[in-house]
Amino acid sequence: MLRKPPSYAESVHKADFSVEPLSIQATFAELSDPGKRSMKMQRRSVEPCVERVVIYKAHESVRLGLSLDAEYKHHSLIASTTPDSLSAKVFDEGDLILRVDGALCTEPAECARMLREASGNIELHIMRRADVDFDAVIAAERPRGE
User: Fold this and answer.
1) Phi, psi at residue 10, to the nearest 5°?
2) pLDDT value at position 107?
3) CATH topology of domain 14-141
4) Are 94 and 77 in contact (CB under 8 A)?
5) Comparing 42 with 123, which gets the higher pLDDT?
6) Predicted pLDDT of residue 47
7) CB 90 within 8 A of CB 15
8) What pLDDT digit, counting tens, does each position of 11-52 carry?
9) Measured between alpha carbons, how far is 19 from 68 in angstroms, rounded to an integer?
10) What radius of gyration do the chain's Cα atoms show?
């Protein structure tokens, strides 16, 4: 007898995701010193933070509840998340997915395919919206010579 895949509500638990910085932006000492804190905050836009996010997807049929922005052909920017979904708990509109399970995300369609087909623990490297240089993203999206 075939077992029906779990529903979204059955498959999402509090321990289904974790978020870790891949590059630490500030130490406690730097945050405690107002002079160093303001210097560090200025550097944040120069050295953006990439986070490692691990989400658990019980089965391939479980939907994560996110859509990628169709305006971008070479960047996997999150356009929206479904309210109360796993993705809504982890991602925000404008976050940039850089890697899925180690594979570089250079095309949103390929990134979406990898996320759809994945199950179990899925490791993503993301850059939060606050760290994304949208001017650079838009410039990289333009055809060469424009």
Assistant:
1) -75, -25
2) 92
3) Pdz3 Domain (2.30.42)
4) yes
5) 123
6) 63
7) no
8) 444 445 555 555 444 444 444 445 543 443 343 445 668 888
9) 20
10) 17
Structure tokens at 114: 């990898």
Q: Which amino acid is at 57?
A: K
Q: Tokens for 88? A: 């809504």
**In this model, does residue 56 exceed pLDDT 60?**
yes
Q: Give yes or no for a contact between 16 and 53, defined as CB atoms under 8 angstroms apart.
A: no
Q: Give pLDDT tens digits for 72-111.
A: 999 999 999 999 888 888 899 999 999 999 999 989 999 9
Residue whose tokens read 């982890």: 90
Cα separation of 129 and 146, whole Å?
26
Q: Angle at Cα 76 formed by Cα 21 and Cα 145, nearest 5°?
A: 120
Cα(67)–Cα(71) distance, integer angstroms: 12
Decide the pairing of beta strands 103-104 and 120-127: unpaired
The number of residues making up the chain comes to 146
Q: Give residue for tokens 């095309």.
A: 107
Regarding beta strands 17-21 and 103-104, do their DSSP bridges make them parallel or antiparallel, or are they unpaired?
A: unpaired
Residue 69 near residue 77, CB atoms below 8 Å: yes
